[in-house]
Design a protein that fits this description.
- The chain is of the alpha+beta class.
- It is 48% helix and 21% strand.
- The strands form three sheets. Strands 7, 8, 9 and 10 form a four-stranded antiparallel beta sheet that branches. A three-stranded antiparallel beta sheet has the order 1-5-2.
C-alpha cells in the first residue's frame, strides 16, 4: 500500500502543460477597458449610461491586471490553484492566466557547480582529496518545486554524496593490477559519477548534463609517502617492462644467429652472451663496448 501511495505521489508531481494564454490578448482588453473609462468619464455629464460604462471598464481592468506575468528564455512558471498544481508554462514573453492563479517561477537554465574539496578514502583506504564539476539543469519543474524542499540545496548535497561514493569505489592509482583508477581513467570515472548522481537527483526533476573531476590528490598527511610509493611502483613497473622487452630481444637475437649460422656458441658462451646483452639492454647508462682483437675465447 505504501508503494502505491508513493507511486501516485510521484506521478502527481510530473510536469504537464498549463492552460494559459498570450498576455497580448489580455493587454488589448485592458486598453479597451481603459478607453471605456476615459470615454465614460467624458460622457458622464451627458449620458446616464456612462457611469455604468466606467464601472464595468474599471471592473474588467481590475480583473485582468493581476493575471499578467513575464517569462524570459529558459524560464518557466508553475501555475497553482489554491495550492493545487495545474501545470507549467514554458512559453516566453508576456503571459496571462486567471488572477486567482498563483505563479511560481523557476529557472530551467544550465547550472554549473564546482564542489568543495572533499577528503575521501579510496578503495585501498588511502585518504585523498577530490572535487568535481557538475553541469545540471531542471528538467521537470513540478518535481523540482514540490517533491523536494529546496532543489538547489538538494543537488549540492547529492553531489557531495555521489563524489564520496564513487571516490571510495576505486583506487587512486594501481600499477600491479589492470583495473580502473581515479587518476588513470578519467572518462570512466566521469561516466560513473554522472550515472550515480543522476540516480540520486532524479526524484528532484534534475538532469545531469556532465560530470568531471576537477581536483584529485592524496591528502597532505600522506602525500609525500604516497608520492615515494608511487615513484617506486612506477620504477618497478618500468623495470619489469624493460626486462620483458630485453628477454624478447635476446631470444630473437639468438634465434637469428643460430638460423643464419653466424657463430656457433656452446652453453657457456651462450650464457655469457645472454648476460652481456641483458646488461646492455637493461642498464640505465650507456655501455662502453670492448673490442676483442684476439680469438673468440680470449
Amino acid at each position: 500500500m505504501t508503494e502505491v501511495v508513493r507511486d501516485r505521489t510521484m506521478k502527481a508531481g510530473r510536469e504537464r502543460p498549463a492552460n494559459t494564454m498570450s498576455g497580448y490578448i489580455a493587454l488589448l482588453l485592458v486598453v479597451v477597458a481603459l478607453a471605456g473609462i476615459i470615454f465614460g468619464i467624458a460622457q458622464i455629464n451627458d449620458a446616464p449610461w456612462a457611469i455604468g460604462l466606467v464601472v464595468v471598464s474599471a471592473v474588467v481592468m481590475t480583473f485582468i491586471a493581476p493575471g499578467f506575468y513575464l517569462l524570459q528564455p529558459n524560464q518557466a512558471a508553475a501555475i497553482l490553484l489554491f495550492g493545487d498544481y495545474r501545470g507549467t508554462d514554458r512559453t516566453t514573453g508576456l503571459r496571462w492566466t486567471w488572477p486567482w492563479m498563483t505563479k511560481k517561477k523557476i529557472s530551467v537554465r544550465i547550472h554549473n557547480i564546482t564542489s568543495d574539496r572533499l577528503k575521501v578514502n579510496d578503495l585501498r583506504g588511502n585518504p585523498i582529496e577530490i572535487a568535481s564539476n557538475v553541469v545540471w539543469r531542471v528538467e521537470d519543474t513540478a518535481q523540482a518545486l514540490f517533491d523536494v524542499d529546496d532543489y538547489r540545496e538538494f543537488v549540492n548535497i547529492q553531489i557531495e554524496s555521489a563524489v564520496r561514493a564513487v571516490g571510495s569505489r576505486y583506487p587512486y592509482d594501481d600499477f600491479e593490477v589492470d583495473r580502473i583508477t581515479l587518476r588513470g581513467d578519467g572518462d570512466e570515472i566521469a561516466t560513473e559519477l554522472q550515472r550515480e548522481l543522476q540516480d540520486r537527483v532524479a526524484n528532484a526533476g534534475v538532469y545531469i548534463d556532465e560530470c568531471r573531476l576537477m581536483h584529485l590528490a592524496y591528502a597532505q598527511e600522506i602525500a609525500q609517502a604516497m608520492l615515494r610509493r608511487q615513484q617506486a611502483e612506477a620504477i618497478i613497473a618500468a623495470r619489469a617492462k624493460l626486462v620483458e622487452g630485453a628477454v624478447s630481444m635476446v631470444e630473437h637475437a639468438l634465434e637469428q644467429l643460430s638460423a643464419k649460422n653466424v657463430v656457433e656458441l656452446d652453453d657457456e658462451r651462450r650464457a655469457a652472451m645472454v648476460s652481456n646483452l641483458m646488461v646492455v639492454l637493461c642498464s640505465e647508462r650507456d655501455t662502453q663496448p670492448i673490442v676483442n682483437a684476439g680469438s673468440l675465447y680470449q
